[in-house]
Design goal:
The protein is built from eight helices and no strands. By secondary structure, it is mostly helical.
Length: 265
């Protein structure tokens, strides 16, 4: 029985032997070691090599996945169901990741210790105005959630022109959000080294900002694929994953805004 005959016995996609998982793990190890060296010596060639190899291998691996799903037809209904379950579990792990930051924030803010002046924000910390840039960023992310939904419905109804416009608008809003957050960080009256308030604020909002950047890149790749007609009415799982991820980022920001920016100030 050859490989093709064996594949016909079931609807699942058996991935061919690939070097990418092993190479990606090696590049992740190199990146981690490079980051440790950078923390100690403020410069590291190993970190640059690791980051470049990381992105190169991710590009080549995802290129293989796109080819398998779009041109080779390996992503059957059963395969897509498994991929969706895997991505849902990934989002659950991300929820738990951010839950740890909220736990640290409320642990310190609900019962401030003597070391920080028995008050929240700690003595000497001037919190950001929640009705300034943070409120504008909230409006931007909520708008981007609407535009990505618009793009999703446009793909479902086969309106390619509307899908391209709405997805491009979503990417613009995501990039604009990142720009405003960078300006907010530069002008913030406190730093990550300023008490537990600074550390919890910058770690929580910083990781969310990283997720926004990743989501923007994710949607950018979808825009390129949409322009090349990779998505159809019934087969656009790549875009679905990007939209799920973007909605997750939106929801996390709402919790960050209400808890850290508004209540925490």
């Amino acid at each position: 029985m050859n490989k093709v005959q064996y594949r016909c016995l079931h609807p699942y996609h058996l991935v061919d032997p690939s070097p990418w998982p092993y190479l990606l793990s090696c590049s992740a190890l190199i990146t981690t070691l490079g980051a440790v060296i950078y923390f100690h010596f403020s410069k590291s060639l190993l970190l640059s090599v690791g980051v470049i190899s990381l992105f190169t291998i991710m590009y080549l691996w995802l290129k293989d996945v796109v080819r398998e799903s779009t041109f080779m037809g390996f992503h059957t209904v059963a395969t897509i169901k498994g991929l969706k379950l895997g991505f849902i579990l990934f989002i659950v792990s991300e929820i738990l990741f951010f839950f740890s930051f909220f736990w640290a924030f409320f642990h310190s803010s609900l019962s401030p210790s003597v070391e920080i002046g028995v008050m929240w924000p700690p003595q000497g910390i001037h919190a950001l105005n929640p009705f300034g840039v943070p409120l504008l960023n909230t409006a931007i992310l909520l708008s981007s959630g609407a535009t990505v939904t618009w793009a999703h419905h446009s793909i479902i109804y086969g309106n390619r022109d509307q899908a391209l416009k709405s997805l491009g608008l979503t990417i613009f809003l995501g990039a604009f959000f990142s720009l405003l957050q960078a300006i907010e960080y530069i002008e913030a009256p406190f730093s990550i080294a300023d008490s537990v308030y600074g550390s919890t604020f910058f770690v929580a909002t910083g990781f969310h900002g990283l997720h926004v950047l990743i989501g923007t890149i994710f949607l950018g790749i979808c825009l390129i694929r949409l322009n090349y007609s990779h998505f159809t009415k019934s087969h656009h799982i790549g875009f679905e994953f990007a939209s799920w991820y973007w909605h997750f980022v939106d929801v996390v920001w709402l919790f960050l805004y209400v808890c850290i920016y508004w209540w925490g100030s």
